[in-house]
Amino acid sequence: MSFTFVGSGIEWFGNTDRRHGISKVFIDGQMVQRVDQWSSSARRQQRLFWVFDLPLAKHTIKIVNTGQHRSGSKGSVIDVDAFVVMKESKTTQSLQPQELPSQQAAKPAGAPFMQNLVVNPTPQSHWTMLQEGTTGVHAMQLSVISETHAIIVDKVEHNLLTISGHPAWAALYNLKTHALKPLNMQSNSFCAGGTFLGNGTLINVGGNPVVDDITNAADFGDVDGLQAIRIFEPCDSEDVDNCDMYENHSRIRMASPRWYNTVLRISDGSAMIIGGSKKGGWINNQTTNNPTIEYFPPKFGGLPIQLDFLLYTMNSNLFPIAISLPDERVFMAANRDAMIYNWKTNTEVKLPQIPNGVRVTYPMTGTGILLPLTPENGYTPEVLICGGSAVDDTKADYEISSQDPASAQCSRIILSDNGIAAGWQVEQMPEARIMPDAVLLPTGQVLIANGAKTGISGYGNVADQVGASNADNPVFTPVLYDPRAPVGQRFSSVGMPTSDIPRLYHSVATLTPEGNIMVAGSNPNLDRSETKYGTEYRVEWINPPYMNMARPALVEGSARPKKIDFFQDFQLQVDLPQNAQDIRVVLMDLGYVTHAVHSNSRLVHLPSSLDGNTLTVTGPPNAGIYPPGPGFIYIVVGGVPSVGMKVMIGDGQGPKVDKDALDNMLTKTKVDQNESDS
């Protein structure tokens, strides 16, 4: 068969099973590849051939059934479900053409379609935005893993990046070159959470089951992800060829299924896994709610522990906001409520309700962040929660509109006795936002980006969807929040660039080691889509004014600590601007970002003194102030930060493994429980 098209690339989708055989693919009369559609099990909607680097012109693809079969017998089936034609659009920027089956790893990204596009060029004292690079897989989840790379995790869908003959759903992104490396994933990581452990290992937790009904995006041989704990070992080298994801559900898993769970590193370096739903859906309900926490590695017997908080915060309580506090307890917010949880004694202390009926967790999604911890105020924690919606979460989906207004409210509370008694301080952002991202900067300011002015999170639910999106009216301009400024003067959009890319459901943003902000994602769709608010692969970089200023730096070639223990003094050889004033050293966790949850995000000021070009710094006082694990140190002089340096805080050891708890969990729970129950 032949098909003529005008474009710069094309994909062929079809089926595979034992009946299918070998074909030849020709482009414009030249044979470019042999494709074998045989597989041991039947799979639908597989991408069989793709090429993305053709000149933008008229081309013809021709597929010839050779009649050959892997078994050596004659006769075989070849089929074509669909062709997808590319026209040098947002989805094909910087992706390389298909590689031979033996070479199916991503090459370094080429020159993207809109590479180096500066949005709203402004004077040096203002902010700029740059479009450069593409993620290859949609960026539903994002975390910086080293000074050179970030990890991106998606769900099972027809992404453009390929691994092992099928579209990938996770990748490493080179922050310097924009090159991509696809990662092997066994299970569906749709709406999973993540965190680093005390030894620097990253875990990706939860996800979606194998779906075989109308909501199935694709079948790439993935397995149930609801109980999955995926392991990504520390990968600090610029060479990431040997870095990959590991899964072994028979030994490494959760005790119960979780979708839309929050994962938090706590003061002993382990992970607290909070809430979620027992299976996929739209909003939580009594049938699917998982009102429990558990830990990795397992502790306290290894089985889930019920939280009353996750019962009375129904229905809008998925992806709860969670923050580890200096006293080692955990702040949580879900729906309109908040509390402090003592995980050592399993006790909950209610906090004042978030004002004005605003709900702040999925699908009425807001964002929450711990404001900077400083020795000057005794490391007293203060929490900021912005955005969300006051829509009634007991309404049916068809009673909710994509035009329902989001909330502009920011609520702030000091978590001391006096602060709790005073309650939440309410402020208003310049624009309402559902699904915003709050990114801590080394300066102590907070950049709020992404989101929409109306609607709710999710896709395919409300009565008047836009494309498939439950939200509409994207917010294109970030806003800067300065927590130290007087009330009424904390928000500013002066000099801020305005994007032209909607960043709605499944968008992310993070600080990078360079000090700028990486913005990616947006996919309120079942699968890769080109409808309005379609799947977004382009990456934007928001550059604060300090990116163009003379910046403090470490002396090149000088010794740098790789590990810093609590209350340990260490020295840095620094190159500072002349007459440097207001010198600060900040330790930052850049967080694990998904669904507006910036898990573990934190900034701690470290005491320091300068003698010549030697800066003597003292590590954080204890594991409450900064839970053991990876972090980045920035030197900030007069509001201008250096490039971040990655360090390990603590002794670098993994969290304690309670063998009895682990064995109890493995004995009393089932592997991929959702599948066996079904």
Descriptive notes:
With 678 residues, the protein is mostly beta strands. It has 4 helices and 51 strands. The protein has a 6-stranded antiparallel beta sheet, with no helix packed on it. The longest helix has 10 residues, at 659-668. It starts with a strand and ends with a helix.
What is the tally of beta strands? 51
Number of helices: 4
* Proportion of residues in extended strands: 35-45%
Shape: globular
Strand order of the largest sheet: 15-14-11-10-44-45
By oligomeric state, this entry counts as single chain
Share in helix? under 10%
Query: Uncertain spans, ≥5 residues at pLDDT below 50?
Result: 90-124
Indicate the radius of gyration in whole angstroms.
Answer: 25 Å
Head-to-tail CA distance between termini: 41 Å
Structural class of the helix and strand makeup?
mainly beta
Mean pLDDT: 91
Largest sheet data: 6 strands, antiparallel
Short recap of the structure:
The protein has 678 residues and is mostly beta strands.
Features:
678 residues, mainly beta, globular
Give the secondary structure arrangement, pairings included:
Elements: E1 2-7, E2 9-16, E3 22-27, E4 30-36, E5 43-51, E6 57-68, E7 82-86, E8 117-119, E9 128-134, E10 141-144, E11 149-153, E12 162-163, E13 166-167, E14 170-174, E15 180-182, E16 193-196, E17 202-205, E18 229-232, E19 262-265, E20 271-274, E21 292-296, E22 305-306, H1 309-312, E23 321-324, E24 330-334, E25 337-342, E26 347-350, E27 366-370, E28 382-387, E29 409-414, H2 417-422, E30 425-428, E31 437-440, E32 446-449, E33 452-459, E34 469-474, E35 479-481, E36 491-492, E37 507-511, E38 517-521, E39 538-543, E40 553-554, E41 563-564, E42 569-575, E43 583-589, E44 592-594, E45 597-599, E46 602-606, E47 608-611, E48 614-618, E49 629-637, E50 640-641, E51 645-649, H3 659-668, H4 673-677
Parallel strand pairs: 41-51
Antiparallel strand pairs: 1-6, 2-5, 2-7, 3-4, 3-6, 8-9, 9-39, 10-11, 10-44, 11-14, 12-13, 14-15, 16-17, 17-18, 19-20, 20-21, 21-22, 23-24, 24-25, 25-26, 27-28, 28-29, 29-30, 31-32, 32-35, 33-34, 35-36, 37-38, 38-39, 40-42, 42-48, 43-46, 43-49, 44-45, 47-48, 49-50, 49-51
InterPro entries: Gal_Oxase/kelch_b-propeller (IPR011043), Gal_Oxidase_central_sf (IPR037293), Glyoxal_oxidase_N (IPR009880), GO-like_E_set (IPR015202), Ig-like_fold (IPR013783), Ig_E-set (IPR014756)
Keywords: Signal
Domain Glyoxal oxidase N-terminal: 168-546
